[in-house]
Every structure is written in C-alpha cells, then in structure tokens.
Amino acid sequence: MFASKKGNPLLADNFRKRVLAKLQEDLKLDVPLTFQVLRRSHAMRNQKTPKDVQAHLGRKTLAMAIGTYAQAIPESVRELVERDERETLEQQDPATSAEQAKR
Q1: For residue 98, is pLDDT > 70?
Q2: CB 37 within 8 A of CB 27
C-alpha cells in the first residue's frame, strides 16, 4: 500500500487521474494508461516464455494467460518502447548503442 502526502491510503482513481493520465498525455499514447495496462505490459514484455507469463500473472492455465493478456501492440506503443530502449542503451554505453543501431 502507498500513502498520500498526508499519510492517507492512496486511492487508485486519484493516482490514475493525477499521474497516469498525465504520463499518458506526455508519452502521446493512444491507449489509456491504467494499472491493468501496466501489469499486462510488464508481464508480456519481461518474460522469456509463455509459461513465464502464466506464472507471473498467476493464471492456472497457459491458455487463460495468453487468451486474456496477449494482444496486438499499437504501433505508437511499439515505437515508444523501441525509442525508450535506444535512449536507455545510449545512456548506459554509447559504444554498445551504436552497434545496436546498426542491426
């Protein structure tokens, strides 16, 4: 649980309106940025196999995990992720990022 500046429980709706909506606008995303989108994106992007996704999401069957969470990624989101990855690599090691860009 997270607390507000006053120490009260942070309401998901307030966080979505104050933080996630602004982030969505700043990133020029076509889809609403919600906790569910963040959860799904993390699970699908950061696992090596579909079975890893299933375990990460806590789904009983692989079909349930993939059927529920697998979906086409909008081009705007794909471009954003690729740009972010390039920028992150450049900040970490300019020589490595130059080689990545050539591929």
Answers
A1: no
A2: no
